[in-house]
Design brief:
Helix content is 22%, strand content 37%. The chain is an alpha+beta fold.
């Protein structure tokens, strides 16, 4: 089993919502792969620590394949 690492946003712009943001799980963009869950967790921790999530809260996650 392997792990796919991806980013996505958790909000989208919508002026009708408070603060102009509507909850929305965005499109997944693959940024890497890992052999073990521990490697995938570390990859996501590092990516999230070195990238500003911005207003739409773009974060790294992973799933298995």
């Amino acid at each position: 089993m392997g792990y796919r690492i991806f980013t996505r946003t958790w909000w989208k712009k919508n002026p009708d919502y408070p603060d102009g943001l509507e909850p929305h799980a965005g499109r997944q963009t693959t940024i890497g792969r890992a052999e073990t869950e521990a490697e995938a967790v570390e990859y996501c921790r590092h990516w999230n620590a070195t990238h500003n999530p911005g207003k739409l809260s773009r974060k790294a996650e992973f799933d298995s394949y």
